[in-house]
Design a protein that fits this description.
alpha+beta, about 290 residues, Tetrahydropterin Synthase, Chain A, Helicase, Ruva Protein, domain 3, 11 strands, 4-stranded antiparallel sheet
Length: about 290
């Protein structure tokens, strides 16, 4: 029998909204495996469809930089949120983003690249010495289109191009670039708010889809439903899941009566051509990093 701690029960309650005793039972049944416990609760009908999101713990800033049909995102972490308001730190993050625009999103290449006579890695080390906190270039992402525009958005910005959430969206189209850029910003705002997992169902991890199907099927199998009925329920349940997880199928935050796909289709007349979302990148500061208990 696994040792189930109070903090494990608390974490599972926060993930699922299930009751304390149900969470304790789920962890006991799954030998303390958190993800298996989430599925166990869902199969029993005791938990909502848990949207996995890492606990945001680390501090720092996301930088977004776009030039023409190419854009980059970088995340530079610090130990405290106070540093995010430091002019030196903000300058460092902007510099890292500019280098990423030149050399691409590979973190090691960014660190080794020169900026102002010194490498980025050296500049960060000097920042540590000056600011007095550990500074880390955690990750970078990039997006480009052959023809069209890169939409961008920064949420909770401290200065232009720097904030707590950054998004890039690729819109491929022969239409007007200024109209596409404005539309891309609106879609990027939607991605910041709704945090989709993929552009459409084909982009979802097959393992995620298989897990969703298994949870749905097992839940209703335990209720004694026949297999032919379960198959229809699973198909319907997947459609609901896609509306939650896939960008094009989500209700558009600027007009919830429409899906994002419908909103883009309606915008094609104004833009002057068909529009295709080629991809998106979304970074939130510290997502997935666990903060040590103080």
């Amino acid at each position: 029998m696994a040792n189930i701690s109070a903090s494990m029960v608390k974490d599972l309650r926060e993930k699922t909204g299930a009751g304390m005793m149900d969470c304790k039972a789920a962890l006991g049944e799954t030998q303390g495996d958190m993800e298996a416990a989430v599925d166990w609760l869902r199969k029993k009908g005791l938990a909502k469809a848990a949207k996995k999101a890492g606990r945001i713990a680390a501090e720092g800033l996301i930088a977004v930089k776009v030039a023409g049909t190419k854009g980059v995102l970088v995340e530079v972490n610090s130990e405290t949120d106070f540093v995010a308001r430091n002019d030196l730190f903000q300058g460092l993050v902007k510099m890292v983003a500019q280098v990423a625009l030149d050399v691409g999103p590979d973190v090691e290449k960014i660190k080794a690249a020169k900026a102002g006579g010194a490498t980025v890695e050296h500049a960060l080390a000097e920042g540590v010495a000056t600011i007095g906190e550990n500074l880390t270039l955690r990750r970078a992402g990039a997006l480009s289109v052959a023809k069209g525009a890169i939409g961008s958005y920064v949420h909770s910005s401290v200065v232009d191009g720097l904030g707590k959430i950054g998004v890039l969206v690729g819109l491929e189209s022969p239409g007007k670039s200024d109209e596409l850029t404005a539309l891309g910003r609106l879609v990027a705002m939607h991605v910041a708010a709704s945090n989709p997992q993929a552009v459409d169902p084909s982009g979802l991890d097959p393992a995620v889809v298989a897990r969703e199907k298994d949870v749905l099927a097992d839940k209703f199998r335990q209720q004694g439903k026949p297999d032919n009925v379960i198959a229809k329920i699973v198909e319907s349940g997947l459609k609901t899941f896609y509306k939650e997880a896939c960008l094009l199928e989500q209700p558009y935050i600027h007009d919830p009566a429409k899906s994002v796909a419908q909103a883009l289709k309606e915008a094609e007349g104004k833009v002057g051509g068909p529009i295709k979302v080629t991809g998106f990148v979304r970074f939130a500061v510290g997502e997935g990093i666990e903060r040590q208990e103080q």
